[in-house]
Amino acid sequence: MIIPPWTASRPRLSESPQRTQGPGKRSEGSTSVHEAERLQDELKESVVRTSAPIEPPRTVTGLDVTYDTGSDRAVAAAVVVDVASLEVVEVAFHRGEATFPYVPGLLAFREVPLLVAAIERLSTPPALLVCDGYGLAHPKRFGLASHLGVVLDLPSYGVAKTAFVGEFTPPAEQRGAHADLTDAGEVIGSVVRTQTAVKPVFVSAGHRIGLDDCVSLTLRLSGRHRIPEPTRQADIESRKMLREWRSLE
Fold first, then answer.
1. Residue 72 assigned as binding residue
2. What value does the mean pLDDT of the chain take?
3. How far is CA 38 from CA 6, 31, 109, 134, 138, in A?
4. Residue 226 domain flag
5. DSSP annotation of 42
6. What residue numbers bound the domain in which 104 lies?
7. Is residue 231 a part of any domain in this protein?
8. pLDDT number for residue 97
9. Annotated binding residue at 153?
10. Per-residue pLDDT tens for 98-117?
11. Threshold 0.85, pTM exceeds
């Protein structure tokens, strides 16, 4: 597996039970857009696409990053949610600074270092990652969920509020309805109605999980809200921590 420069020296998640140090400003700050595109092309070759069903996980870890307005300061949150009850089991944060610019299609190079640092603060390595973003539903078929899944070698998928690429016919209005998201004749995701008569979400497999399982888990995790509980809670917690960070100044 090809590991990006900012994670190459880090232990695998299974090797260290206690992780409190984030990635900081190492080589990611010097990664150029050209180098990021080259690395992205290499990393995507490691994506495991599958249609085989997985064993339903007991917990799922939702991920999100909230940025301070007008700066590169950010808080990444990793929230572990019990699949059966949708209760929050554990929350971990990383406060830091994004050192790669915002470039459409290269969001992972901005967020992966922050998210890895938050994940490493969890007391138990996650079983499955759900990102606020895209997996295969990406121009390079390698969005944030795929990138993070490959880097950590974990099953991962993305749930986004809007489509980045692709075409679709809106699904029926009832909860559970879904339709293919396609691009250049390839099914790259699913447009899923998580609540009746509410705007759908855009689900795409990231790494080591099939689209059918992604759709099923998204519905199971959505509860009473449009957004699945793991990423909804990660958004809430990262925003809350950012407010607390500001209040200390």
1. no
2. 89
3. 15, 11, 12, 19, 16
4. yes
5. H
6. 25-247
7. yes
8. 96
9. no
10. 999 999 999 999 999 999 99
11. yes
